[in-house]
Design brief:
Layout lengths: L1 H11 L7 H8 L1 H43 L18 H9 L1 H34 L3 H18 L2 H31 L3 H13 L15 H8 L5 H21 L5 H5 L1 H44 L7 H6 L3 H37 L5 H19 L6 H38 L7 H4 L11 H33 L1
Keywords: Cell inner membrane, Cell membrane, Membrane, Transmembrane, Transmembrane helix, Transport
Membrane topology: Multi-pass membrane protein
Protein name: Amino acid transporter transmembrane domain-containing protein
Length: 484
């Protein structure tokens, strides 16, 4: 469970963390905290839905094996649940629930999400690099990004992992130092200035920015910033598959001969219980891991609201211009956040590009692999040259579309579709609740509240996508009318 918690924490805290001051300063702390907690709750329950959907995919695979064995003359009730046979990704869930075409759409959304996040980090990195070293913004888009890409693709994986750990420690250490610096220079100060600074936390409040009224809508950025859905397949695979394998190994050494026939139902029940227990443990680990990022986000929002006035256009640059107790921690935080996000995104996109070039086009030579890696680094760098104003829109796009669909809508709908489909198939085969070995192997309810909560998650996801689309179309219409 400890590893799962660490994965959640590491996945949630990334380059999007730097967007928070730009949103909380005009919002005020109370509206910002409300939006953060609401977004976090949506993502947490959506992760529960994915866990349940992954279990239902395992049920679907088992049922396929059941039908296959039944065709060979083996009764449905004689089938023993088997261990999971690999990682259940978001694409796998979509394929089993909705078909191959929807899985292809999911892959396209995954690419767009990675590209948007990478480009956003290049934009912010170039902006800060240009600010600190007084170089042109376009040069900042290519120079540091090329160095990071060269290191990522030319170093040994172990070296990249260790450097990523160093960046993570730098980010966390910078954040801790920022808290201390804020307390000693701001809130803990003396006199009327200190009272005014502390009062800024609660006197400023603009709830309208929590609604889809203009391009400053904060919710999509919050959703993107706090998302950890892409870590859920790994967590489910590690916790569930490992537990089932251990249970199967125990059964394999528990007896032989006629004893194995007598113990078949016991083995089925044991594996089913192991799966259910592991899914529930995965839910617990997800909850514990997700608590840390929301706490850090609420603290970061408080610091931003306290130190940054809503009239400041670039809060991160403003914080870097303050005294060393603030500027140095912010610099460490920014370097660690952007660095860890770029390293992970480059690796993920690079592997995806290599797989496409090799498996789809048959070009597996080193030169083609290098070309795929070059494209991985070049595309976000070129897109970032469009300007610093891309940063928040890219994060909002990632939260409103890829994140909402892949990690919100698809697992919720998959739970409804798969559970109904499996029950229908079992009913057609005459399997009822009295058939304990089969029914006990079904994935238990992981999402609190059952179908009602799952339906709410689906509606919220659709609402996020629809509201973002309407907002974008209205902005395009206004600009067109203004241009005419």
């Amino acid at each position: 469970m400890r590893d799962a918690v660490s994965i959640i924490i590491g996945t949630s805290i990334g380059g999007g963390f730097l967007a928070l001051p730009s949103l909380t300063a005009p919002l005020g702390y109370i509206p910002a905290a409300l939006g953060l907690v609401a977004s976090w709750s949506f993502l947490l329950f959506s992760s529960f839905a994915f866990t349940e959907a992954a279990g239902l995919v395992a049920d679907a695979k088992q049922f396929e094996k059941t039908l296959s064995r039944e065709g060979d003359g083996v009764g449905v009730g004689d089938v023993t649940p088997t261990t999971n046979d690999g990682t259940t990704s978001v694409a796998t869930v979509m394929r089993y629930a909705f078909g191959k075409k929807c899985a292809l759409v999911g892959s396209c959304l995954f690419i767009s999400q990675l590209l948007a996040v990478m480009t956003a980090q290049v934009v912010k990195g170039a902006e800060l690099f240009s600010h600190c070293f007084k170089i042109p913004f376009i040069l900042g888009c290519f120079l540091p990004t090329s160095l990071v890409g060269l290191f990522t693709f030319k170093s040994q994986p172990e070296v990249v992992e260790r450097f990523n750990t160093v960046l993570t420690v730098m980010m966390i250490g910078g954040f801790a130092a920022l808290i201390l610096g804020t307390v000693t220079t701001g809130i803990a100060g003396k006199g009327a200035a200190s009272a005014a600074t502390a009062g800024a936390l609660f006197t400023r409040a603009d709830y309208s920015k929590l609604l889809p009224l203009d391009d400053a809508w904060a919710i999509p950025v919050f959703v993107n910033m706090l998302c950890f859905g892409h870590a859920m397949p790994l967590i489910v695979e590690r916790m569930v598959h490992g537990s089932e394998s251990a249970s199967a190994d125990t059964d394999a050494t528990s007896g032989n001969g006629d004893d194995n026939i007598d113990k078949e139902e016991t083995s089925a029940t044991r594996i089913a219980n192991a799966r259910a227990s592991s899914l529930l443990r995965a839910r617990t680990a997800t909850t514990v891991g997700a608590v840390i990022p929301i706490i850090l986000s609420l603290i970061w929002a408080a610091i931003s609201t306290t130190l940054v006035e809503p009239t400041i256009s670039n809060p991160v640059q403003y914080l870097l211009s303050m005294g060393p107790k603030i500027s140095i921690p912010v610099g460490l935080l920014a370097t660690g956040a952007i660095g860890t996000t770029l390293l992970g995104s480059f690796l993920a996109m690079g592997h995806f590009a290599e797989d496409i070039v090799c498996s789809k086009f048959g070009h597996c030579s080193l030169s083609w692999v290098n070309a795929a890696n070059l494209i991985t680094v070049a595309v976000p760098s070129i897109l970032a040259c469009l300007g610093p104003s891309l940063y928040l829109p890219l994060l909002a796009f990632s939260g409103a579309y890829p994140t909402a669909i892949l990690h919100g809508l698809s697992p919720a709908l998959a739970v409804l579709v798969l559970r109904r489909r499996i029950k229908k198939q079992l009913a057609e085969k005459g399997i009822t609740k009295k058939d304990k070995p089969v029914m006990e192997s079904m994935t238990p309810r992981i999402v609190p509240g059952g179908n009602s909560t799952v339906i709410i998650l689906a509606v919220l996801s659709i609402g996020l996508v629809a509201s973002s689309t309407c907002l974008a179309l209205s902005q395009m219409a206004r600009r067109f009318i203004a241009g005419v």
